[in-house]
Specification:
Largest sheet: none
Shape: elongated
CATH architecture of the largest domain: Orthogonal Bundle
CATH class of the largest domain: Mainly Alpha
Order of helices and strands: HHHHHHHHH
Strand content: under 5%
CATH topology of the largest domain: Tetracycline Repressor, domain 2
Amino acid sequence: MPSAPLDPPQDLARSRPGRSKRRLAILEAALAVIAEKGLEETRMAHIGEAAGMSAGHVMYYFPSKAELLMQALKWSEDQFLSSALEAISSLPTARERLSRLVQLSLPDSPADPAWILWLETWTRAAHDERIARFQREIEQRWIGALADVVREGQQSGEFAPLDADSFATIFSALIDGLAIRMLGGPGSLTRERILEICNERIETELLAGGKVSG
């Protein structure tokens, strides 16, 4: 089912730039409002106000909060993966690329909107198969990016010849678990400590048996 009514064919080319701009404004507003209020307290009216439009206009593009949650998360993850992969492309070693991916993926603060969206998605996935499927698809993209870097390191002889997909799955779960601890606020794990833990895992599991130490 499309997330908004389709334009008449004769108006499609003319309206698409405006539609895309409005959808983007709604997604950006949704991230900010959900981060501030949490999904349960967020109303379409709040998002509309933040985006400079009515609640009805928001619902024209996203007919439910669940749909808006998924699309906001997808948009956020698209932006993240694109910028992260570009940021690591010039780093000379797989070890540096993998460590940098970890660093980029961690929350900036307990109020990080992208991570709050993830928490909301995980909570709802247990009761909504559509959201659960969507969550798995997004997670697999991230796990695939980690596995690709591991395979690059194996091809160069830098990393040990273990199962890259299995390592990436477990490593992703480790990052998620530590990041959730960080979202607990003051007194919780710091980004610096999480990076130390993840780099230790890279050292013990990937660099052991590799030909290059760093």
